[in-house]
Amino acid sequence: QCTQKDPNFAECYYFLGQAHLWTGDEQAAIENYIKAIEHDPTQPYFYGEVAEILMSMRLYKDAEAILLAALFAGLWLARERLARFGPGAVAGAYLVALAAIRFSGWDRWLS
Question: Are the CB atoms for 21 and 2 separated by under 8 Å?
Answer without folding.
Answer: no
